[in-house]
Specification:
about 425 residues, mainly alpha, 15 helices, globular
């Protein structure tokens, strides 16, 4: 592995480790202070907010990173790209805010979640100013890593200052948003210090729309993936209630934490690196892609086994004895984490680098429909366990489908 690649991977891995050392303190405090019922409300509200973050982020973490890797040493072109992405995000945030307002007014089922939803939605503003694709393209992942740590630290300070009892549960969401907003302001400013030649100008409506249209396939794929990945939590919030939603929310929270620790460093490190390999030809790309998969199978499988063995201890430490029902629920999520390695490498790396955005979108749309329909029936008929089991079964099928598509694509390109 090249030295710079290892350095970037280490930055992100250490950042993620720090990010999840802090929740070792904050999660136990939240779960015990607000109680099982309110914890479920918070998890559902946060999940729904992620859809609106996806709207603001659009496809820029992929399309802009891919473009930035090519033009990183041409400040004029970088300025044009930076400006276009920034103004595109403003437009997308306004559209998302209108949809959010309509949902709050028209969907009565969301009214019990409104305090937490409003608190979390403020976080979406920060993503207008956060340009992680810029730092990824420059291979300056240290900035991204430090920003992530700062967000968690600010959140922790606000959490312990503001949340004192169950009725303060919505302030957990407010604290989260404030952390993101404060850090995003500093990161936005730092991007101009990192590249003094960088200029922010309004590029014109035509260029903004062109940018959105060119990235639509990747955005639609990203949104389909978000619906696919979070479909279980969405239906849990509408079909479950009280403690049952809290237990499912705790297991789902732990699953997302493990997923982020395992795949976020991988994504941030390999995306620009494999993009360069793809430019060297399909033979080189195929060789490097499968080499990394072989290297990663054993550690990812080992991580899954370890999580299964320590799941009881982890749940009791993080959430408390009151959440013991979350132990078995989380264990049913673990096979999905192991399958996630292949899904990530085939779908979120290979399809992107091979510029098969149409194929990427098709497979994600198929899986989105399966998730929406399957999770609904699984949770409605079998409750929280139905949702956890269905996620792992669904991901196993995803691996087989993704491998088949990638195999056909590589064969056609050779």
């Amino acid at each position: 592995m090249p030295a710079y690649l290892f350095r970037n991977f280490s930055y992100i891995t250490l950042s993620q480790a720090a990010n999840y050392l802090i929740p070792l303190i904050t999660i136990p405090y939240i779960s015990r202070t607000v109680g099982v019922d309110k914890f479920g409300i918070l998890e559902y509200s946060y999940t729904l907010t992620l859809y609106f973050i996806q709207i603001v982020e659009y496809s820029f973490d992929i399309t802009a990173t891919r473009r930035m890797a090519v033009i990183a040493h041409r400040p004029v072109l970088v300025s044009r790209l930076y400006s276009t992405v920034f103004w595109s995000k403003i437009f997308l945030w306004v559209m998302g805010a209108l949809v959010f307002a309509a949902m709050m007014v028209l969907k009565r089922q969301l009214h019990p979640y409104m305090p937490a939803l409003l608190g979390y939605f403020a976080m979406t503003i920060s993503f207008v100013f956060t340009q992680n694709w810029f730092f990824q393209g420059l291979q300056k992942l240290g900035a991204v890593a430090l920003a992530n740590v700062a967000i968690k630290l600010i959140f922790a300070l606000l959490l312990f200052s503001l949340v004192k009892n169950e009725s303060d549960y919505y302030l957990v969401a407010v604290s989260t948003s404030l952390g993101y907003l404060i850090v995003s302001a500093f990161v936005f400013r730092y991007s101009f210090r990192l590249m003094p030649e960088l200029r922010l100008r309004f590029p014109g409506i035509r260029l903004v729309l062109k940018n959105l249209i060119s990235g639509f396939y990747v955005f639609a794929g990203g949104m389909a993936n978000k619906v696919y990945a979070l479909g279980g939590m969405y239906w849990a919030g509408l079909l479950l209630s009280g403690a049952t939603l809290g237990f499912y929310g705790a297991a789902h929270k732990l699953y997302l934490v493990a997923q982020s620790m395992m795949f976020y460093p991988l994504h941030m490190t390999l995306l620009p690196h494999l993009a360069q390999k793809a430019s060297e030809g399909i033979t080189m790309y195929k060789k490097v892609l499968f080499k990394y998969i072989k290297w990663l199978v054993v550690p990812f499988t080992g991580a899954g086994v370890l999580l299964f063995l320590v799941s009881e201890l982890v749940v009791k430490l993080l959430f408390g004895l009151e959440y013991r029902e979350s132990i078995e629920l989380f264990r049913w999520f673990i096979p999905s984490l192991v399958a996630g390695l292949f899904i990530h490498m085939f779908v979120y790396q290979a399809f992107i680098h091979l510029k098969k955005d149409d194929a990427h979108l098709k497979i994600l749309l198929v899986m989105m429909v399966i998730s929406v329909v399957g999770n609904y029936f699984a949770i409605r008929n079998f409750g929280a366990y139905g949702g956890a089991v269905f996620r792992s079964v669904m991901d196993a099928g995803y691996v087989l489908l993704a491998w088949r598509w990638v195999h056909l694509i590589l064969r056609d390109k050779e």
